[in-house]
Fold this sequence. Notes:
Layout: H1 5-17, H2 20-30, E1 31-34, E2 38-43, H3 59-66, E3 81-87, H4 90-101, E4 106-114, E5 123-127, E6 130-132, E7 140-142, E8 151-162, E9 165-174, H5 181-189, H6 202-206, E10 213-221, E11 228-232
Parallel strand pairs: 3-10
Antiparallel strand pairs: 1-2, 2-3, 4-9, 4-10, 5-8, 6-7, 8-9, 10-11
Helix pairs in contact: 2-3
Amino acid sequence: MAISIETVNQLNLEEAARDTQFFKDFMTQVTVYEDEDLLLVDKPAGLLSIDGKDLKVSLLSRLERANPEVKLIHRLDMDTSGLMIFAKNKQAQTHISKQFIERIPQKEYQAIVQGTLAIPGKKGEINIPVRYEPSIKPKHVADPEWKKHALTHYEVLHHELRKGQPVTRVALHPVTGRSHQLRVHMVHLGHVIIGDPIYAEGEALSLAPRLNLHAHKLRLKHPTMNTWMAWESAVPF
């Protein structure tokens, strides 16, 4: 949902006026794991990963105010919550970024989608490119003719009810990392993620107060110890 420039300006002023202790407390609240090389945090839904063109309130900017050494590696959509990994030095940033480029990290998201999607235990994949469509910004669309492929593996976990309506909890494993990939791939399957302020409409939008998409698990190689490390964040819906 778009917000007015007046609201953006007010949020920017409030953020700029906060003292250092606020940002240190925020960092403590969201930190899942930290060592000399890595900072793993649990990103809240509704917070940008990095500053936007106008809105200068984001996870990265808050972490940088607490620790200027924090360095970005990847992003989550503003409406998505869950695990994000940051580096604390240039060497770690280069190492982990290379892993993401080579698709080494293993990521699992959980989502709740509208309707009944197959039977529990059913596994499948969505292999169709996703691209930005400026005529309906900020939406992206599935486009089989687009040059950059997008691949998501999914597993049906179980069926539930939300406000008396059938929904399905799914585990999503993105192989590629295109913008809005999981959201568009679920739309392509005919089962939009509930509470999605961009892609859901009507009943699907009203079934949840927020986008029901959470970065649940992350596994990657530590940049200096060269051992596999794995983390999990509780799903808040």
